Amino acid sequence: MAIKHEAELYAPLKAFFEMNGYEVKGEVRHCDLVGMKEGLEEPLIVELKKTFNLALLLQGIERLKLTPYVYLAVEKSRAKKGAVNQRWNELSGLCGRLGLGLITVTFYKTKAPFVEVLCEPEMAVQTGRTAIRRKERLLYEFRERSGDYNTGGITRAKLVTAYREKTLRVAAAMNSAEAEQRSLHELQEQEHGLQAGRAAAALPGISPAAVRDRSGVGSAADILQRNYYGWFRRVSRGRYVLTPAGIQALADYATVLKS
Fold first, then answer.
1. Of 31, 39, 75, 113, which has the fewest beta carbons less than 10 angstroms from its beta carbon?
2. Positive or negative, the Cα torsion across 100, 127, 24, 166?
3. Which residues contact 55 (CB under 8 A, 6 or more apart)?
4. Are 241 and 170 part of one and the same domain?
5. How many CA atoms lie within 13 A of 37 on its CB side?
6. What is the rounded average pLDDT for all residues in the chain?
């Protein structure tokens, strides 16, 4: 059963590596699948494609600058036996010479996909300079994410990065604080007979310090000032409110906030 998108490979591969003790997250610093295992310093990287091609091979070689544990993963089509990109013995030999691992995923109509490791990465052939800074950024991004909210191999989709996740936590904290402010002013209006318009005008916004304490995000002030996604608006010195875009983001990414 031929797949339509490479992202369909992600779920069976994620399950396979989780069974082997890895914590797996998708689309981390442009890597389709990244795994970390307790006791291992090096990350595992898997790049996905529907079929084996030169672009996938070059991508795998580039990832070797980050870790010696790099696999290429493609669909194994039972309907295309003998095709150039289905000559598994030859492709395994090529990957082995380059130090890359090769994995195939076979899909069936009535049973679960079958993941097969055709060859393991050969660390002995690793040469060249390791991109230490890029590797550090990859590991930082992986560890800063609280969960796996992206499907590896997906394209044209907004990814939940560590920065977006922190910004969502800031937005949720502001939304909660603003709701408390509105409730307080409504109570004051009932107790003192204030006009509704006056009560609304008294809302001062939320300070970065209050957002930091409520959200637990130490960089809350910087996130508010940069306003990368346009979710916040500065109403006065040291005071911010949520924009309609920020409120919509809380609805769009509700599953992230629930985790």
1. 39
2. negative
3. 49
4. yes
5. 12
6. 85
Question: pLDDT tens digits for 216-237?
Answer: 888 999 999 999 999 999 998 8
Last residue of a domain, one of 144, 178, 213: 144
Whole-structure pTM value: 0.68
Note whether 16 and 120 are same-domain residues.
Answer: yes
Could you tell me the pLDDT band of residue 83, with boundaries at 50, 70 and 90? low
What CA–CA distance (Å, rounded) separates 70 from 65?
Answer: 10
Q: Which residue has the higher pLDDT, 183 or 53?
A: 53
Please enumerate in sequence order all residues whose Cβ is within 8 A of that of 233, keeping only pairs 6 or more positions apart, or say none: 227, 240, 241, 242, 243
- 3-state DSSP assignment of residue 215: helix
State the sign of the Cα–Cα–Cα–Cα dihedral 149, 154, 158, 161.
positive
What's the domain count of the chain? Answer: 2
CATH of the domain at 185: 1.10.10
pLDDT score of 242: 92
3-state secondary structure of 47: strand
CA distance 68 to 61: 10
Q: Rounded CA gap, 42 and 40, in Å?
A: 6
HSE-CB at 83 with a 13 A cutoff on CA atoms is 12
Average pLDDT value for residue range 137-150? 84
